[in-house]
Every structure is written in structure tokens, then in C-alpha cells.
Amino acid sequence: MREARYGHGGMSEELSGQVAIVTGGASGIGAASATLLAAAGARVIVADLKTATDGVGRFVPHDVTVEVSWQALLADVLKHEGRLDVMVNNAGITGGVGSVENTDVESWQRVQQVNCEGVFLGCKYGIQGMKRTGADKPKPRGSIVNISSVAGLQAGAGSIAYTASKGAVRLLSKSVALYCAEQNYDIRCNSVHPGGVDTPIFDPLWQFMGREQGKALIDRRHPIGRMAEPREIGEVVLWLASDRSSFVTGAEIAADGGLSTGLMRRQPLVAS
Fold it and tell me: Is beta strand 19-23 parallel, antiparallel or unpaired with respect to 186-194?
């Protein structure tokens, strides 16, 4: 039976000795995930096009859409950290608003390249790194966490490229989970599906509507009554990365404040 390692601050040591890569880890959900993984004892590699400024983990410049960049990243991590236990494929873009009729091919391809192909490459090289780590053991083990979206569970007519890419991440994750099981790898793969999260991804909306008005609009869409903080999604990532979720693979975790549960009408308050 696996046992989580508890430190003085709760589960501060449960990932002690483990190494985690977080793509898109310089901001938003990625930065929150990196912070929590580091607090749990992991050595974190923040892989991003943007330089990380919060000092969490070790920063490595990385483009998720370029296979050579993945090869270089894996070689760098194995050289300096000597192992890989957790891969968090978080990097993604929205691609803006666009329906099936008005989305151009270039925009479509760019979103798929980052959101889908980038995750595919992350899984591919994540498995390779975990196999190298477990070369002297009966079988390799580790955890791959792919950040999808509530848009991967519910379609949106006005964001076809983003919806398609995040839906692809959902089934890609299940395929990877099944493959690892068939190969007798103790490597789990799961997808996380956030709803609205207060990250820089919403900056264009805040600039258009104003932050207070725009946030109120997004808050009302969620049955729970608000959008998430990045840390709340990072906690889900930490759980999936740890042995607390050791029997969970091929799962889709909706961390969306109930958004994917169904349609809900919020009735306005009426003074009597």
C-alpha cells in the first residue's frame, strides 16, 4: 500500500524527491500548479515561452509546438534532475472567438497546434522521461495531468477551434491512459476541465468590458456563483500528481463550479 508522506505543514513532503514539469508554468493555472507542487516537495521545472518571475522551480524556455524543443527539454531535465515523475501539460491558447463559418484555417491550425499537438508531444516525451526514470524498476511509474477545459465537455458555437482542441485533449488523455495500462506501465493520465478561472486569459474581456463588469458576467455563468482562482485548479493538479489519486487514470475531472452540469437560470432578486 502506498503511503503519502506528511510533513509539518500537512502534505508538504508527499512529492519529496520527485520531479515535475509544468508547461505554461509562468502564469495562471500553470504557475499555481507549480507553486503547489513545489510546496509538496517536488523539484519543479517551469517550461514556458515567457520567463517565470516568481522564482518557483527552475525555468527552461520551451515551445510546446516544436518537437525538437521537447527533446531538448527532456534531455535537460534528465541531465540536471536525473528523473521525471510528473508531467503537467498546461500550456494553451484560446484563439479568440470564431464560428465554423468565420474561423480561418491559420487560426484553426494554430489553436490545434498549441492545445492539442502540444499535449500529444507532452504525453509522448513525458512517458519517455518516466521510462528512463524507472529503467531499473519492474515498471515505470508517474502521473500525466493534461489541462483541458469545460469547453472539452460542452461545445461552444462561437469558439469552434478552442472547443475542438479541448475536446481532443479529453480523449487523447484517455487513449494515453489505456496505452500505458496495456504496456504495463504504472503511468496514469488524466484530464482536468476548469470553468472560468481568473487568469490573464480573460484580460482581453476585462479590457473590453472593464474587470468588474466582465467578472460579474463570468461569475453568473457558474452555478456555484463565481469563477475559480488559479490555486483551486492547482489543487486538483496536485491531487492527480500525487499518490492520493493512485487508482485514478483515464478520468476527466470537471473543476468548473458546476458549469458542465447543465443549464441553470438565475432568477433576479425582486423586492416585495
Answer: unpaired
- Contacts of residue 237, defined as CB under 8 A and 6 or more positions apart, other chains included, come to 29, 33, 36, 37, 88, 90, 145, 147, 192
Q: Known catalytic residue: 162?
A: yes
Is the pLDDT reported for residue 121 higher than 50?
A: yes
Strand-pairing partners, residue 190, are: 145
Whether 187 and 171 have beta carbons less than 8 Å apart is answered as no
Pairwise CA distance, residues 186 & 198, whole Å: 34
Listing DSSP states for 213-260 in one string gives HHHHHHHHHSTTSSPBPHHHHHHHHHHHHSGGGTT--S-EEEESTTTT
Q: What is the pLDDT of residues 187-209, one digit of tens each?
A: 999 999 999 898 887 777 778 78
In this prediction, residue 101 has a pLDDT band, given cuts at 50, 70 and 90, of very high
Residue the block writes with cell 460579474: 216
Model confidence, pTM: 0.89
Place of cell 500525466: 144
Full set of structural domains in the chain with CATH: 19-199+228-255 (3.40.50.720)
What contacts 82, CB < 8 A, 6 or more positions away? Answer: 19
| Alpha helices, DSSP H, located in 117-210 | 118-133, 160-182, 203-209
Look at residue 210 in the predicted model and tell me its pLDDT. 85
Q: Is the dihedral of CA 8, 10, 12, 18 positive or negative?
A: positive
* Residue 248 reports pLDDT greater than 90: yes
C-alpha cell at 22: 509544468
Q: Which of 125, 162, 179, 185 is catalytic?
A: 162
